[in-house]
Amino acid sequence: MPELPETETIARDLEREISGQRITRVEVLRPDVLREVKPRELVARVSGAAILKCWRRAKLIVLDLSTHDRIVVQPRFTGALLLDEGNLPETERRYSTVRFALGDGRALHYRDIRRLGTVSLMSAERFDEYSALLGVEPLDPAFSDAHLSALLRESRRAVKTLLMDQRSVVGIGNIYANEALWRASIDPSRVSRSVTPEEAERLRDAIVGVLEESISHRGTSFRDYRDASGERGSFVERLAVYGRAGQPCSRCGARLIGTHAIDGRMTVLCARCQK
Fold first, then answer.
1. Rounded CA gap, 49 and 65, in Å?
2. Rounded Cα–Cα distance for residues 91 and 211 (Å)
3. Does 4-131 match 145-269 in CATH topology?
């Protein structure tokens, strides 16, 4: 599933490429991906609108329109926003669910193989209401050592579970929770409230560090993630634990352990390094 670095990469690409473009036509090819709007209403409200800004909130990609509406895309497992200059491969085009024709002749496709992601159209007020239910952005100044320490201190859940709760901290999924906890030398199964302020400071630095480093490498591609140009991210080559169960820890050499004991998601850790 695209996490913060992947959706940030896509949003930055789209901001550079299509900000200022006008949407001339909309085709809804698979209406089951739509949320909060019907196909005819989407076409009517979006056709002719200019794209003012492309940005990210949590794991969402947001397109601000001149009509004061916002196109809100949640890619989930196999979704992608792909720019098409007329040469999009048929292997991608066949999974297009919504197509936005742009004034310069290009098109923006929401491609989703399994159609588990969503495309919503929200007013600015509705989006603010939706966004208010989400947690703090980990790359914002508000995500301080003290803020993270307070979140941890109030929870009896496993620390990994808390990090992945979008109501607490947004954008962190399974990949980056594993990586940040390894960098901070914290056992993912530890009760959150047992994490000391000093460890919380270390964890906050690890979270910010791994997210920023992944953004600089355009995200992590295992299977389906592609940026707006259809290219893969290269951070997969720098993962320390995720996807490496059974291999040696790069810090101490002990064998990395893989388990589904925490919320049924794959957790990879070093039992020697992470306490």
1. 6
2. 30
3. no
pTM: 0.93
The CATH code for residues 4-131 is 3.20.190.10
Catalytic residue list contains 265? yes
Give yes or no for residue 224 having a pLDDT over 70: no
pLDDT (0 to 100) of residue 223:
61
User: Contact 159/181 with Cβ under 8 angstroms?
Assistant: yes
Active site residue 167: no
Burial 6-33 (b: 16+ CB within 10 A, else e): bbbbbbbbbbebbeebbbeebebeeeeb
Taking the alpha carbons of 98, 101, 102, 104 in that order, is the dihedral positive or negative? positive
What is the reported pLDDT for 202?
98
DSSP, collapsed to helix, strand or coil, labels residue 110 as strand
Name residues whose C-beta falls within 8 Å of residue 271's C-beta, 6 or more positions apart in sequence. 187, 254, 257
pLDDT digits (tens, 9 = 90+) for 126-146: 999 999 999 999 999 999 999
Query: What's the CA gap between 130 and 83, in Å, rounded?
Result: 27
By C-alpha distance, which of 90, 119, 115, 92 is closest to 26? 119
CATH class of 145-269: mainly alpha
Q: Which of 5, 17, 57, 59 is catalytic?
A: 59
Residue with token string 């670095």: 5
The DSSP result for 80-96, as a single string, is: EEEEESS---HHHHTTE
Task: Provide the residue ranges of all domains of the chain, joining segments of one domain with +.
Answer: 4-131, 145-269
Catalytic residue list contains 2: yes
The Cα-based distances of 237 to 20, 149, 186, 241, 242 in angstroms read 35, 31, 22, 11, 11
**One of 22, 106, 153, 265 is an active-site residue; which one?**
265
